[in-house]
Specification:
heterodimer, A: mainly alpha, 14 helices, B: mainly alpha, two-stranded antiparallel sheet, 71% helix
Chain lengths: 272, 293
């Protein structure tokens, strides 16, 4: 066996990886410790046993199930609607010459330049006028479409060869079937990038759900988690167990799909 | 009628109609309405009334607003260069086929999948003055325990550390994608010409990363100026307003004190600031960033 030269990169990367991982590892350790083990200094890094009771306490003291369900419903509707509505609009902006299209495109794009805080209060007033405050609809209606998706898909559609679409038009296909039968099947990478980015945004969204929802059982996971922290100020073992429950699905999804996940983020960043 | 529907004008407008209606109702109308609000007294309940520029004039003399601007600028000036500089170093190191590389990458990327709220809760525990591991590590290397989020002189730096942890994975992903787009021949040519590693990095790699860096600087600055979630879930602007940033103050004014008109004025000042900063960044970068096609 020969001794291979070890890359000096390890000297930098190993500590970096440790620092990045340690908060999450410590959260996982604390979540299975007994409360008195978490109240020692120096900290107990290897607990005497696994204290699953923390998870039971977390689930029994807060409606995690309802929060999950709310977040999943909001994300599902918002992602599907964004992909569908953005694809429709983006296709029109990419391929159809219609009166006012250039002006309209610029005007819609301008909404991207305005930070959300500027429209926060009027959006609250509009949603309240629609009778949706404290209702899951408040989290869905304002997020059904985003100009970012229109822009991203339009850029992508323009890179597709137009000949196929022209041939289909000559064969008598209308615009809608050209879009659904030819353009969309060729656009899987762009559509999945848009879906993933929209999912991450919606899942993590905090300020708007905080303002729009008051009743505990109507909250999304993020706002629920925040109130959960408020209710368990320094009960670190229960807090960490609840936090584990809240972040586990997204982290698991990330670990299972890391390659395409990373590729999607890179694509959205470089083109967006 | 049928012919009209088949025309490009009709089908075009039909396709964009749903998105347009939604973006008008939940985008353009609120933008205009917010401008109106900023010239009103509005408590979100009773009928609003017109107050002219009173909100904007009051802002100029509001010490907490000034403090929030100061905090936001200080946070942004620390967060943007630290997160992007570190991300560049990490991405350079990760851009190699060595042992454990997938473990290293996963460790750096994972916070991208952790929400801001969950990040804040973890760091409240990491930075706990009495039992947290941050103080344990400091004690191990001979530094006494710190207050972190509980110390007005340190809280903002704690926020910077926490948000760098949460954001760096995204920056590294962008940089790695850009690094992998650099053609190998360029680096070989530099090596044949006898360029040192450092001068290759400075004269070949760094300029080619220009567009990625510009994107990250603009995007990180916009996000830093809008910091809210992490403040709300850790310090709530304290201690002693040392972490009161502009958006946190805006939220407080609108939804704690019900001063919606005043909050709208804050929002417009923020909007203007972001616009000016972004334009400056893009103009300055025109000289520094070169795109290769």
């Amino acid at each position: 066996m020969t001794l291979r030269r070890i890359s000096p990169r390890h000297l930098f990367l190993a500590p970096v990886a440790l620092i990045m991982a340690s908060p999450l590892i410590w959260m996982a350790i604390t979540s299975i410790e007994k409360p008195n083990e978490a109240r020692r200094f120096p900290p107990v890094l290897i607990p005497a046993g696994i204290h699953w009771q923390n998870y039971r306490n977390a689930v029994e003291s807060a409606p995690f199930g309802a929060w999950y369900l709310n977040s999943v419903i909001v994300c599902a509707v918002v992602v599907v609607s964004n992909v569908a509505l953005c694809a429709l609009a983006a296709y029109a902006f990419a391929r159809i010459r219609f009166a006012g299209s250039n002006v309209l495109f610029v005007v819609l794009l301008a909404t991207l330049m305005v930070p959300f805080q500027v429209i926060l209060i009027p959006t609250f007033l509009i949603v309240r006028h629609l009778g949706l405050i404290d209702n899951i609809g408040a989290l869905i209606a304002p997020n059904l479409v985003n100009a970012f998706g229109i822009f991203m898909l339009r850029q992508f559609f323009r890179t597709l060869p137009i000949e196929l679409e022209e041939a289909a038009r000559i064969d008598g296909c209308n615009r809608l079937s050209v879009l659904t039968k030819i353009v969309l099947p060729l656009s899987a990478p762009a559509l999945s990038t848009l879906a993933l980015i929209t999912l991450l945004w919606t899942w993590n969204d905090f300020l708007w759900p905080l303002v729009a929802i008051n009743t505990e059982s109507h909250m999304t996971l993020q706002v629920g988690l925040s109130t959960f922290q408020g209710a368990h100020q320094t009960q670190w073992t229960i807090l960490m167990a609840g936090n584990m429950l809240a972040l586990a699905p997204m982290v698991a999804a990330f670990l299972l799909t890391q390659r395409s996940f990373v590729r999607s983020i890179a694509a959205s960043g470089l083109k967006g | 009628m049928r012919r009209l529907l088949r025309s490009d004008h009709a089908s075009g407008w039909l396709f964009v109609a749903p998105a347009t209606i939604l973006l008008v109702v939940f985008g353009l109308v609120p933008i205009g309405w917010s401008a109106l609000l900023s010239f009103q007294h509005n408590d979100l309940l009773s009928a609003p009334h017109w107050v002219g520029t009173a909100n904007y004039r009051a802002l100029r003399h509001d010490p907490v607003f000034r403090k929030s601007i100061h905090n936001t600028i200080e946070y942004t000036l620390l967060f943007v260069p630290i997160s992007i500089g570190l991300a560049l170093a990490v991405a350079m190191a990760l851009n190699a086929r060595i042992r454990f590389i997938s473990i290293y990458r996963t460790a750096v990327f994972i916070p991208v999948a952790v929400s801001t709220v969950a990040t804040a809760i973890v760091f409240n525990w990491v930075f706990d003055p009495t039992y947290g591991i941050a103080n344990w590590l400091l004690n191990e290397i001979g530094i006494s325990s710190q207050g972190f989020f509980h110390n007005p002189d340190q809280a903002l730096y704690g926020i910077v550390a926490m948000t760098v942890w949460g954001w760096i994975g995204f920056d590294v992903i962008i940089y790695l994608a850009a690094l992998q787009g650099i053609p190998g021949e360029l680096l070989e040519a530099a090596a044949i010409d006898g360029a040192s590693r450092w001068s290759t990095f400075r004269s070949v790699v760094l300029p080619l990363l220009g567009p990625a860096t510009l994107f990250l600087v603009v995007w990180s600055t916009i996000n830093a100026l809008q910091l809210f979630d992490e403040i709300y879930n850790t310090t709530r602007g304290g201690p002693l307003e040392s972490t009161t940033v502009v958006v946190y103050y805006l939220w407080e004014q609108a939804f704690q004190y019900f001063e919606a008109g005043y909050a709208a004025a804050i929002a417009y000042v923020l909007f203007l600031a972001i616009l000016v900063v972004t334009v400056i960044q893009l103009v300055v970068s025109r000289r520094a960033v070169h795109y290769t096609s």
